[in-house]
Amino acid sequence: MATYGxxxxxxxxxxxxxxxxxxxxxxRYNVFSPRLSEDLLAHFEEVGDREDVSAVALTxxxxxxxxxxxxxxxxxxxxxxxxxxxQNLGAARNWLSESTLPVVTGATGAAxxxxxxxxxxxxxxxxxxxxxxxxPENQLGMKAYGEAVFLVSALGAPxxxxxILMGDEAKLTAEEAHTLGLVNRVVPAEDVDDTVREMxxxxxxxxxxxxxxxxxxxxxxHARREENGASQVYAAQLERSLNVD
Length: 245
Description:
- This protein is of the alpha/beta class.
- It is 51% helix and 17% strand.
- The protein has helices at residues 34-48, 71-74, 79-98, 114-120, 137-140, 145-155, 157-166, 174-180, 192-210, 213-239; strands at residues 3-4, 10-15, 18-23, 55-60, 103-107, 110-112, 124-128, 132-134, 172-173, 185-187.
- α1 runs parallel beside α3 (79-98), α6 runs antiparallel to α7 (157-166) and α6 packs across α10 (213-239).
């Protein structure tokens, strides 16, 4: 049986070692809003504390995975609200980057900005043939230097530069993302959720048999930190200048 966060925008169901976290605000294209982000973080915290979870399946209701940050907040006149939303996105990104629970994420439709971050910071990424992935932060005048560093390691410097600087003019298709190694599998849009659940289920089954998943994830996370650790520190310093510009 699924449970919901306090704002009823993200559900959580746990079965056979798999925690399925599902974005459920399709009328707003699962936009990364204050309400949805609070629910998502609450579920991340819950599954991180449970001993009966070996893998996470992150999916979304509707035709759009996550339509990015809530533009009502981004383009509004409340800088405190925007800062709080960015902090929630940073917390979600950090959880995905640091958790020893492997996260298999499936995306269809649009995955810009926050949607791209949730997808690309997951451990295993499945996308529908219809997906579009892009980073609009420079286009919107937002600082996302940590994402620039991440994309250099994920895509290579030339493609990362194009992607982070050109916004939706450098939108990645499913096949491009797969060729670049940003996503693991491309399947028909209607098969994304089942593929994600099946992959997470395989991981959970092997963890039941041998109990090694957490140790593998610790090694993988260590390798990720080593890959661009100094650059991430520098990017964080640049982003902290946000409030003194």
